[in-house]
Amino acid sequence: MRITEARVIVTCPDRNFVTLKIITDDGVTGVGDATLNGRELAVASYLTDHVVPQLIGRDPTRIEDTWQYLYKGAYWRRGPVTMSAIAAVDTALWDILGKLAGLPVYKLIGGRSREGVTVYGHANGDTVEDALVEVARYVDLGYRAIRVQTGIPGMASTYGVSKDKLFYEPADAAIPTENVWSTSRYLNHVPTVFNRVRDEFGPDVKLLHDVHHRLTPIEAARLGKSLEPFSLTWIEDPVPAELQEGFRLIRQHTTTPVAVGEVFNTVWDCEQLIREQLIDYIRATVVHAGGITHLRRIFDLAALHHVRSGSHGATDLSPVCMAAALHVDVAIPNFGLQEYMRHTSATDEVFPHGYHFEGGYLHPSEEPGLGVDIDEELAAQYPYKPASLPVNRLEDGTMHSW
Ligand code: CS2
Ligand code: MG
Question: Mandelate racemase/muconate lactonizing enzyme C-terminal domain: from which residue to which, for each copy (predicted)?
């Protein structure tokens, strides 16, 4: 059996997605997500110009060998563009293998370890009152875990506060929107938000908060301490993770758990954080961390060090990534949480899928393979639109992490 064709499909059903579809000589096909938010065309070119020609004629069942061939064979290692491209190939090959075996992918990687995948949604609002209404919406929908973000008094906008309820789309303009940031206003405000949320919703709902790389380690330590009375499940990306020693300082000061990893691409990006037990949840996911094959390696290393998964699942990760992530989530021993931001109906129509939310859990498809596809005719009706993530400045105009 051989790969005869691989198509790179770029489409924008309310947001941009890059999808790889691999076709074999006996007609079985597989799909993989290759979307890198704001840099989509770089991955599309990496695939079209450099990877696809090397796939033609290969045996699609040699998943590990193809992974090694693309990783070691490129000479240039790691990085989001390379690893998203490899991820797309790997994901599509697992999809094909599942279809050949007549089994959902989770059964090929060890089988079910739990009845469903606990997911968290995003409750947010300009004011605390607005955010409380959104928390109630998720509680009513049956979510067991909720991320809460609000506007900061005195600031025109902040990360995580959306215009549309249930959807959050930060990549809102071709040339990046500019946001303004004040760490002192933020640090004073956040504990008041979680105080109100715990008061209204009690101790059982899991609460999370995304700091989006905006603090220094000592500021993150203060935030973690100030949130201890409200028992958060995690604070996410408290500091940029290039300098990983910084996490030791956070750890020395607070018992609020820490989650990191949505911008990581390989096990080498998180090896120190995991080995030194500086984090509690690793948030890497299929599309940006080299596919199912490599994500399993990251999660297996994490399992040895009391670190659980907490995979990224924002709207820029396509339903193909979400489908694949759920097969991993349901199978691994050290699953923690899965982020689940709903896609718009236009996105859902372009990517018909069998995963579904029921009883407060997401469930992977039971179809052979991943249980997701791309409707290429419909996809062609939504041409690519340039869209960038915002940038962020301090009040005096200094560039800051977004
Ligand atoms: C975020 C994302 O979901 C999250 O935790 O940090 O919204 C992130 O900003 C986007 O996925 C970037 O593409
Ligand atoms: Mg995040």
Answer: 129-257
